[in-house]
Write a structure and sequence with these properties.
single chain; about 220 residues; mainly alpha; about 60% helix; about 0% strand; elongated; UBR7; EC 2.3.2.27; zinc ion binding
């Protein structure tokens, strides 16, 4: 949607509301010979429907118009659209998705965009969809730390507490284990780290067996 103020300030955009309506009509399977834009390209579009098969001349004409709208042109596409009957209303306008990609990019139109301070309109990387895609890419975890936080947020409250307790226990035991090397000024080897985790795993199995035995006697 383009607000009323911007449509009034940049009134050449009204010419593209006709093109936007044609795209919507073609998508829904309708064809028309004349279109009267009465309320900003959103409603009250009056059209005389044609009859015939899906390969009728009227429909082929609309297909050519839409295809030409997205293909490069040497002539000014805006001037072609302005030859049609266009109603300028003091309202906002609604456009079909991707309408900015169909704006004319001839030299004269680019100068108009620049003079009116709206040269960003022809930049497809500045669309709402482009910002949404970049936002999703930024929200995707990239580091192991971010992935860990995301996994933690997907757990219930009890699981989160258990994971945090386990993390704190691991941190405490690892600090105590490495403190011995620091006091003795010894270099920590890969074998030492493997030994630490092997011992930790053995304690975990022993604790699990004890818990199972206790639950058996409590029955």
């Amino acid at each position: 949607m383009v607000c009323r103020g911007c449509m009034s300030k940049h009134d050449f955009l009204w010419a593209y509301t006709i093109q936007s309506l044609e795209t919507q009509k073609l998508t829904s399977g309708e064809t028309s010979d004349s279109i009267d834009v009465a309320s900003g390209g959103n409603d009250n579009a009056k059209a005389s429907k044609t009859t015939g098969g899906k390969h009728s001349p009227a429909k082929r004409k609309k297909v050519e118009q839409v295809d030409n709208a997205s293909s490069p042109r040497k002539s000014c596409h805006l001037k072609e659209l302005q030859k049609r009957k266009i109603s300028h209303k003091d309202t906002a306008a609604f456009f079909a998705d991707g309408w900015r990609s169909k704006l004319c990019t001839c030299t004269d139109c680019k100068n108009v965009y620049c003079d009116q301070g709206i040269e960003f309109l022809s930049d497809e990387s500045d669309t709402v969809h482009a910002y949404e895609v970049r936002g999703k890419e930024k929200s995707t975890p990239t580091s192991q730390y971010d992935k860990g936080l995301q996994a933690l947020s997907n757990m219930n409250r009890l699981q989160q507490v258990e994971v945090l307790h386990g993390y704190n226990d691991l941190k405490s035991e690892l600090n105590d284990y490495l403190k011995k090397f620091a006091e003795n000024k010894k270099v920590v080897r890969e074998e030492d780290i493997r030994e630490f985790f092997s011992t930790l795993e053995a304690r975990k199995r022993q604790r699990k067996s004890s818990d199972e035995g206790m639950s058996y006697f409590c029955k």
